[in-house]
Design brief:
globular; Cathepsin D, subunit A, domain 1; 2 domains; mainly beta; 422 residues; six-stranded mixed beta sheet; 13-stranded mixed beta sheet
Length: 422
């Protein structure tokens, strides 16, 4: 089984209230002299200060039970209206779980008379590119290709660029603008002119910060500027597939929500906030993880939250501690594995300390794919970062939580899922 984008992050370069001032006219002091009553019942004192007398209704009889019931009903009505407004303000996008948790893809269109593109929505990069008819070596038989001659809203931009990724992929592209169906905004993007690999997707949609790209606004920037969303934030619910090789290669994979979060899948609708340590990647500080009564510090390096990376990537020494607890070992190929007989346990063995809470993976959630043909050894979802100066929490971790990316608040937000056993 192909391990898709095992380190796919960019190298070269995330209730309506009415104001009291507008609702009530400021009382004029010119119409009331000392002791006189002015507009709205204000009384002017001798020192010029306006007073508003409080009138007590002496005929009122308190009914605490009834008053409390009415207050709770008003609160419930308010909450229901608020949640309804929040959901209507979100731009949802369905996700497909491709190749048994290898990658999570979503369909979108760009321009007129163009096909639907399978896009990898990637918080580890910022550029949007699509394979195109300008590409000299794109495999058109395996992909939907953007053809600038078909779209009347296409506009060429006199700029070329390239992006390199951590798995060795290099993409060259010609910039253009066109209208993307998500929010119907005009988006600057790259038409691929050459690519040195043949990925399982047609496009990458970068959801990192603008500073990671080549100066163009990201999709989130344009959605906010156009008013399509009211906040520069988005959430994702990644849903795990059946265990490889059972089931179809493409299975339901969850949902993106642009403009806010879908709290209906978050336990107690509670998100925990973690400040970003940099506004490039979605980069945070994860103090530690624990396994088998051992706590291992992680705060010597930043942790990148990356939807475009398949696995969890840690230092080799940290992998050694984790797989020792699972009875596992590193194979000659460098892959960390553990006995397949230990993949079905419900025990939540690996716990990451994030936002003041522990978010954990069970023995079964540690499984990625079979390693040996005899069924004895299985590849785990935690692998070595190859000595990189960062850690990565990829899809293998994110499909166990609800992840929120708050560009306005400069924070990553995380919650426990209602559809994932804890």
């Amino acid at each position: 089984m192909k391990l898709a984008r095992s380190l796919f992050i960019i190298i070269t370069s995330l209730a309506v209230e009415q104001s009291l001032a507008s609702a009530v006219q400021e009382p004029s002091t010119s119409t009331a002299t000392s002791g006189e009553t002015g507009p709205f019942g204000f009384v002017k004192r001798g020192d010029g200060i306006l007073e508003l007398p409080i009138i007590i209704n002496k005929n009122y009889t308190a009914n605490i039970t009834q008053d409390l019931s009415h207050a709770l009903q008003r609160r419930q009505t308010y909450e229901q209206k608020r949640e309804s407004l929040e959901k209507r303000s979100l731009l949802p996008l369905t996700i497909v779980n491709h190749l048994w948790n290898s990658m999570f893809l979503s369909k979108f269109t760009m321009g007129q008379n163009e096909p639907q593109f399978n896009g990898l929505f990637d918080t580890g990069s910022a550029t949007l590119w699509i394979q195109s008819t300008l590409c000299s070596n794109c495999v058109a038989a395996n992909h939907n290709i953007y053809n600038p001659q078909k779209s009347s809203s296409y506009r060429r931009v006199s700029q070329t660029a390239s992006t390199s990724y951590g798995d060795g992929t290099n993409v060259n592209y010609q910039y253009a603008t066109d209208v993307i169906n998500i929010g119907r905004v005009t988006q600057k993007f790259g038409l691929v002119t050459s690519i040195n690999q043949n990925p399982d997707f047609d496009s990458i949609v970068g959801l990192g910060f603008k500073s990671l790209g080549h100066g163009e606004n990201t999709l989130i920037d344009n959605l906010r500027a156009s008013g399509a969303i009211s906040a520069s934030k988005f959430g994702v619910q990644l849903v795990t597939s059946s265990v490889y090789p059972n089931g179809a290669a493409d299975q339901p994979g969850g949902k993106w929500s642009f403009g806010g979060y879908d709290l209906s899948v978050v336990k107690n609708k509670k998100m925990y906030t973690v400040p970003l340590t940099a506004e490039t990647w979605w980069q945070i500080n994860v103090p530690s993880f624990s396994i088998a009564s051992k706590t291992i510090k992680m705060n010597s390096k930043p942790t990148i939250v990356d939807t475009g990376t398949t696995l969890i990537l840690l230092d080799n020494s940290q992998c050694q501690v984790i797989y020792a607890a699972l009875g596992g070992k590193m194979q000659g190929s460098g892959a960390w594995t553990y006995p397949c007989k230990n993949t079905n346990g419900p025990l939540r063995i690996l716990k990451f300390f994030i936002g003041g809470q522990y978010f954990s993976l069970s023995q079964s959630q540690m499984f990625f794919s079979p390693f040996s043909n005899d069924g004895k050894w299985c590849t785990g979802t935690v692998q070595s970062n190859g000595g990189a100066n960062y850690y990565i929490l990829g899809a293998a971790f994110l499909k166990t939580v609800y992840a929120g990316f708050n560009q306005d608040g400069k924070s990553f937000e995380i919650g426990y899922r209602t559809d994932v056993a804890v």
